[in-house]
Amino acid sequence: MTLRHFQIFLHVCDEDGMTRAAEKMHISQPSVSQAIKELEEHYQVRLFERLGKRLFLTAAGQELMHYARHVISLTTQAEFALRGFSALSPLRIGATLSIGESVFIPLLSRLKEKLPQQPIFSRIHNTATLEQYLLQDELDIALVEGTITSEYLQEIPFMDDELLLVAAPGIAARLTLDDLATCDFIMREEGSGTRNLFEQVMHEQGITPHIVGVYNNSASIKQAVIAGLGITALSRQLVETEIRDGSLIELTVPNIRFKRNFRLVHHVNKYITPTLQLFIDLCQNDDDF
Q1: How many C-beta atoms surround the C-beta of residue 288 within 10 A?
Q2: pLDDT under 70: residue ranges of the chain
Q3: What is the pLDDT of residue 86?
Q4: Dihedral sign, Cα of residue 119, residue 192, residue 259, residue 166
Q5: How many other CB atoms are found less than 10 A from the CB of residue 259?
Q6: 3-class SS string, 160-182
Q7: Which residue from 11, 51, 64, 186 could staple onto 21, CB 3.0 to 4.6 Å apart?
Q8: Residue 126 φ/ψ, nearest 5 degrees
Q9: Taking a C-beta distance cutoff of 8 angstroms, is the pair 97, 189 a contact?
């Protein structure tokens, strides 16, 4: 087997088919088919099942996909390390929206202060998307608060957080569970850690929330709540300023708490470079948060 076999296999996985994989790699479809056939013959397993016009990974294919990504990742890291010590490879860091709008930028600034020559690539998405980026080796590490499902990712807690129920002034600050069941909610999109925790706690109390708005950024959610369009649950980090200035009020409900922690996540096989370790240490030891 060669790296080329693994590269073709991963493109077929990512593009959901041999035709799109061939187009992406600028090679012929028969070449892609031949590479997959050689892989299956080598390992004596079926890697894909064809149902209709679509290809689906088998259990063996899923397993090989993780190993293939690791092999390609190690190869890329070796190239960066040996290409020339004058050129630094970028540190690729992701964060969820809640973390991105609170502690992420200060952490990046501290890293830049300590390593001014270090290239940094950063991106903000919800937890589910960041998990896929980590598995596909498109990120070195991510800061998340939502649930990680892959066994191939390692999590390191670095900060406690809590969602607060907030509303525009003018309603009672103390609600009952029955009151909460009648409220209109403006919430984050599905796949976000904030949305998942909110729904989990509400369902534990037997409440199906009435969601009247779904926004993918906290600023719009706060504006909608301040305008009286509904109430929301957001990280304490994101609403402290509005609570202090009186544009939002914190709501309390007996037996309702939205506790969570922020976590650093990387692939279990990730080589921890000195630069990456420095960033991990900054996150764990920053007393300002």
Answers
A1: 7
A2: 80-87, 287-289
A3: 43
A4: positive
A5: 10
A6: EEEEEEEECECECCECCHHHHHC
A7: 11
A8: -75, 170
A9: no
